[in-house]
Specification:
Elements: H1 19-29, H2 35-46, E1 54-56, E2 59-64, E3 72-77, H3 83-94, H4 97-104, H5 110-118, E4 131-134, H6 144-159, H7 162-167, H8 172-187, H9 204-209, H10 249-267, H11 278-286, H12 292-302, H13 306-328, H14 335-345, E5 364-366, E6 369-372, E7 377-381, E8 387-391, E9 400-401, H15 409-421
Antiparallel strand pairs: 1-2, 2-3, 3-4, 5-6, 6-7, 7-8, 8-9
Helix pairs in contact: 1-6, 2-6, 3-8, 11-12, 11-13
Length: 422
């Protein structure tokens, strides 16, 4: 299908901030010429009419509210990869250490998708692959309820690309276990003589075993997974420290992951961490998913109240270093940028320019912030020219970052509204 025959993209960018999320939306929109049903599906998703999404290998399910008293059961099927295709895909991921690090950092490497496509592995969905079904009487393909499910799913894929791999048949735990096995097999393959050929180095476990203890590290608590979730992160160190060492294996694993991630960012040209302040570095480390004890140590070191520190951590996760700057203090923005945003939000043809009672949206302007006080939502223009969505629970509560930043003020407003309903 040629681009001119695709369903209109108007408003769909609000559901996908990443290139792989947009690929999912593109697959949906290229599967039908029915722009009307896609538009209604976007509206349903924006209004929070899609219930909790259940993802199993090859299947997405959710209840979607409609015109009937009871919600409809909507589903979307996606082909599961064969074992041979999974072996090839895992080999492609393991071939470059940075790919595993990128996935753990919430990114889908574009070169991985290219290599998978070249090998005939459908990592990203093709238009004909998304197979919708719904309990509603609508004959559309997809109907507006299944379309709403697809749009809502794009946001989830933005947050964690492992969810796409889970739809293809392997959970995050299974993928990381397989990658860990491949890494250990490759690092332990040494000559039977026990000698290390010149220029090839030695396995990390052998190097660590020969360490003579000439330096120390401050004792830190281990990083933990979120409550109720399995610890699925791959272990970069496999040999325990010598007896009496002032640090644990978990300490070394956490610091090694952090060091590897920073090295990957530097190799990609992201040099901001080289000049960050102690506070910014503490926030960065806290945002990597450390344990509660580590978090409290960083809070004490930063000298901030715990809630203020937690706000900066969330701002970093949603908006990067610019998100932290936006959270810390307001600034005087470019008047033209603010005027353009107000014009877009006041557009009568834009369904998001009205509140739930169809009244014209009223936004209060102060410096780089646009606030809808009646809805307790706010968007802030950052130094990166992106809009950062904020929300609060009551008029007296603090404003909190609630969704990833975007260049589109309308999309940012939609994200803030969605967060208030979740």
């Amino acid at each position: 299908m040629t681009p001119s025959h695709k369903a209109p993209r108007t408003g769909s960018r609000a559901f996908a901030a990443t290139w792989w999320g947009r690929a999912w939306v593109d697959a949906l929109e290229a599967s039908t010429l029915d722009a009307g049903r896609l538009s209604r599906g976007r509206t349903y998703a924006r209004k929070g009419m899609v219930g909790p999404v259940t993802a199993t290998p090859g299947m997405l399910r959710a209840e979607v509210e409609g015109s009937a008293p009871r919600p409809y059961d909507a589903a979307v099927r996606l082909r599961v990869l064969t074992d041979a295709q999974w072996d090839a895909l895992l080999d492609a991921i393991a071939a470059q250490a940075g790919r595993t690090a990128a996935l753990l950092d919430g990114e889908m490497p574009a070169d991985l998708a290219d290599d998978a496509r070249a090998a005939g592995i459908p990592l990203l969905p093709e238009p004909a692959e998304l197979d919708p079904e719904c309990s509603c009487p609508d004959w559309g393909y997809p109907c507006k309820h299944a379309a709403a499910l697809c749009y809502a799913t794009a946001t989830h894929l933005d947050d964690d690309p492992f969810r796409l791999l889970a739809l293809r048949g392997r959970t995050k735990d299974a993928v990381l276990t397989a990658l860990r096995t491949r890494r250990q097999t490759s690092t332990c393959a040494v000559p039977e003589t026990g000698e290390t050929p010149r220029g090839r180095g030695m396995p990390a476990r052998d190097a660590f075993a020969s360490w003579n203890g000439t330096f120390t590290l401050p004792a830190l608590e281990p990083a933990k997974s979120a409550p109720g979730e399995p610890d699925t992160a791959p272990s970069p160190v496999t040999t325990a420290p010598p007896p009496g060492a002032p640090f644990t294996l978990d300490d070394l694993e956490a610091l090694t992951r952090d060091t590897a991630q920073r090295a990957r960012n530097l190799a990609a040209g992201h040099t901001t961490s080289l000049t960050c302040t102690p506070l910014e570095d503490a926030v960065r480390l806290a945002a990597t998913g450390i344990g509660e004890d580590w978090f409290h140590q960083l809070v004490r070191a930063a000298g901030l109240p715990p809630l203020d520190f937690a706000l900066l951590v969330r701002a970093l996760r949603h908006g990067g270093s610019a998100g932290v700057a936006v959270a810390r203090a307001p600034f005087v923005p470019d008047p033209a940028a603010m005027a353009a945003a107000r014009t877009a939000l006041a557009d009568p043809d834009n369904a998001d320019s009205t509140d739930d009672t169809a009244r014209t949206l009223r936004m209060r302007t102060w410096r780089n912030r646009l606030t809808a006080d009646d809805e307790d939502v706010q968007i802030r223009l950052g130094p990166d020219n992106r809009w950062h969505p904020y929300t609060r629970e009551s008029p007296t509560a603090a404003w909190w970052p609630c969704a990833p930043a975007t260049t589109d003020p309308v999309a940012a407003l939609v994200a803030a509204r969605t967060a208030t309903r979740s």
